[in-house]
Design a protein that fits this description.
Shape: globular
Distance between the termini: 19 Å
Number of helices: 10
Amino acid sequence: MSVAIGVGLTEFPFARTGDYWRWVDLCEAGGIDSIWQTDRLVSTQPILECMAVMAALAGRTRRLRFGMNVVSLALRDPILLAKQCATIDVLSEGRLLPAFGIGSPLGPEWQALNIDTRTRGKRTDEALEIISRLWREDSVDYAGTHYRLEGASISPKPVQPDLPMWIGGSSEAAIRRTARYGTGWQAGGEMPADAGKVVAAIKQATAEAGRSIDDDHYGAGFPFYFGSADDKIVAVAMAAYTRRTGRKSEGYFAVGDEHTIIDRVAEYVGVGVEKFILRPIGRDGEAVIDQTRRLIDKVIPMVETRWPKKAKAH
């Protein structure tokens, strides 16, 4: 097993930029595996732009890995995104974890940018093809429905020889997309039973495609809160989640103590998921820092004891 716990943010809850960096430094020193930033371009709430965050984390940290959870490809230019990922991977010496998806149809970006949500899947598939080729090839020609390239190239290439390409989504199209392009899969709001079905479907699809994805490259995430389900902040967070995603929040949030969180992790591990993005719930930046500190102090040691990492072969 290679169970790893990362943390993620959607909104920016900190009163000052220095508080955000205190949170990052806490994660860096505390054994957190990775930091993830949700992609949101249009919002009334303060949310950081994910690619800019990746670049900033590359300069601030030395050990942590980081990724976007997940970048909506249909809203981005694939050449620019491929170049950004390669640049950040070079500057971080190979610590970027790119993750891509089609984006939620409920997001405000589609109307604001006048993009037809029905084109999300095709745009994403074309962009994945372009990005993966730009990372490997010196000159790329491409003629698609939404993108056309002639002699496109980027340099330097990513430091990681096989830069990860995590794919989000659980639809049949997302499963096919992961089987064709992905080196990993990241769940959205799927509960363990549903995540397990997707993992099994991806493994079957990759085998049929003559490919494989490492067993420890299946991920999931959930919000967590050390405290009572009756606390007002929990109800606020659940309502915001449902409003943003259209998903029910009951049963998805892990609210209680360290045993509540570790039991939820174990449920996912039982269906083939080993990588996690846990999102701390807090009314403000100080509360988020406190929740993260509790995760580090109480949950990380339990993970390391229950699922010890394999010794690397020399």
